[in-house]
Amino acid sequence: MQRQSPVDNENLRGRIVVITRPAGTAAALTRRVRALGGMPLLLPGLALRGAADEAVARAGLKVALLDELLVFTSPAAVRHAAALAPLQTTATVLAVGQGTAQALRRYGIAALLSPQRQDSEGLLEHPALQDLHGRRVALIGAAGGRGVLREQLAARGARLRELHAYRRVPPRLDRRHVDALLQLPASARVLLSSAEALQNLQQLLPPPAWARLCAATAVVSSERLAAAARAAGFSRIVLAASALSADLLDAARRAG
Prior knowledge:
This protein is an alpha/beta fold.
C-alpha cells in the first residue's frame, strides 16, 4: 500500500467506482466519477438523520456557540448544525479533516485543523487543544463513534459539552445493491472514508456479495481505515491524501 499523489493525465474510463458515502450525499461525487469516464455504483454504508429531538438540539447548539472552543467532527455535523441554527460564534473553531473545514467555510467560518493527519488523532495534536484545563469546549457531531475526541478532551481538563446534531444509522440495502455487487469486476474501486460504513456493509451484505466487494481495490482516506479494510478482507488497498472527493478520486485513478 502506498500513498497516491494527484495526477491530471489519467482517468477512470470504463472502471466501476463504488461510492459508500451516506445515502443522499453522493450526487457531486457521482458527477465527478462520470466526468472522469468512470461508472459510479452507489452503495451507501450509512444513512444520516437529523437529531432525535430538534428543539433540544437547537437549544443546545445555541448554548454551545457561546463556548470558547468548538470542535466539528464531520461535514455532516456542520450541515446538520447549520440547519438547526445560524453558526455565528466568536469561539475558536476546529475541524476534523479538510472536508469538515471546507464545509465550515461555506458558512463563513475559518476553522483550525491538523495539517498532518485528517482524523481525530491528528486534530488532537493541534496546539489549541493541548491545555484545556477549565476551558469550555463543545464537541459537535453524532452519538457513537470511537469516542477518541470525547475521552481526550475530557482528560485534558476541558469543561466538555457534547452536541448530537444528527444521527448515523445503518443504510437500507436491497436486492439491486446485492445483484450489482455479484457482477462487480475485480478492477472496480471502492471509495471508503468511514469505518462505521465499512462495518455496516460487512454486516448487511450476503457473504457472496461481500466477497466480490473485497476482491476490488479499496481506496481509503486514512491509515486507520486502511487497517480496518485489511481486517475486513480487502487485500488491495490504496491510501488517499484525505477523505475529500478529489483526493479519493486521484488515488483511484492511480491505483494499479
